[in-house]
Design a protein that fits this description.
The chain is α/β, with parallel strands linked by helices. The chain has 12 helices and 8 strands. The longest helix has 16 residues.
């Protein structure tokens, strides 16, 4: 596993890369508040099975792509970053994997560019239409999502999260991921401007348009102890996939699936890729 700089018109994305250059390409998209290093265990496993794996630090997380305006973090722009990154890598088609916000980007990209995605895997994040439906009908999901409104306030949110050696930011991991990973994510987001850029994903405003039904081989992995996404949206996600669909539930696992339950996720992911070669 080595570091890679990916130059695009938007700027330079930092990334982790592993696996043979000629291997079947897989792109891994992280969420908040993490970086591409959240995928270390998946990178190792996929590369060991001959895949070419790239896990970028997404817009705002890479210092070379850190615009100041919240509107520069709209979901369509984030999906366009995937276009730019994969075109720079020379990948015409690839397997796409996303978690948390990276999962949202993956849903949007798959909806907009289905011909470029061989398979889709989303961890934790339900289909956007399923989530919107739950927010409209399910009080539990509305309570879980209240933080998205609370985090609109700046710089108060950043100041609170970064106080006392980023105590509140670290608390988000709830002791569910390895300490080394939590420390690395917190250090990265404590750099000047980094946390504001990451929070701008929440402050960018509602997207134009919507994601429709996904006609691709899709694996959706949800966990019962997820504090962010509840069961209503998770179970409804299957209605928004017309391609081969697999819904897997991890019992007793929190929101931080890639780092908390890497063996379980790796097994599901590798099986999904093998099934749709």
């Amino acid at each position: 596993m080595t570091e890679l700089s990916i130059s695009t018109a938007a700027g330079v994305f930092d990334a982790l890369v592993a696996g043979p250059p000629e291997g079947r390409p897989v792109l891994l998209l992280h969420g908040f508040p993490q970086t591409g290093r959240a995928w270390e265990r998946q990178i190792e496993a996929l590369a060991a099975h001959g895949h070419r794996v790239v896990a970028p630090d997404q817009r705002g997380y890479s210092p070379g792509v850190r615009p100041e305006r919240p509107e520069d973090y709209r979901i369509d722009i984030l999906a366009d970053d995937v276009v730019a990154i994969t075109e720079e890598l020379g990948w015409a088609t690839f397997d796409l994997v996303g978690h948390d916000w990276g999962g949202a980007v993956a849903w949007w990209f798959a909806g907009a560019h289905p011909g470029r995605v061989r398979t889709l895997t989303v961890v934790s994040t339900p289909h956007p239409a399923a989530l919107a439906g739950a927010l409209g009908t399910d009080e539990d999901q509305r309570k879980r999502s209240q933080y998205m409104i609370d985090w609109q306030e700046t710089p108060a949110t950043e100041n609170r999260m970064l106080a006392n050696d980023a105590e509140e930011l670290r608390a988000a991991y709830a002791g569910r991921i390895p300490q080394a990973g939590a420390d690395a994510h917190a250090r990265h987001l404590s750099e000047p401007g980094a946390l504001t850029a990451a929070l701008n994903w929440y402050r960018a405003g509602r997207p134009d348009g919507a994601v429709g039904v996904i006609d691709l081989p899709t694996l959706y992995v949800w966990s019962t102890d997820d504090a962010v996404f509840g069961p209503v949206a998770a179970r409804d996600t299957g209605r928004w996939v017309s391609g081969p669909y697999r819904f897997e539930t991890l019992e007793g696992v929190s929101h931080w699936v890639p780092e908390e339950a890497p063996e379980a996720l790796n097994s599901l992911l590798l099986e999904h890729l093998r099934s749709h070669g």
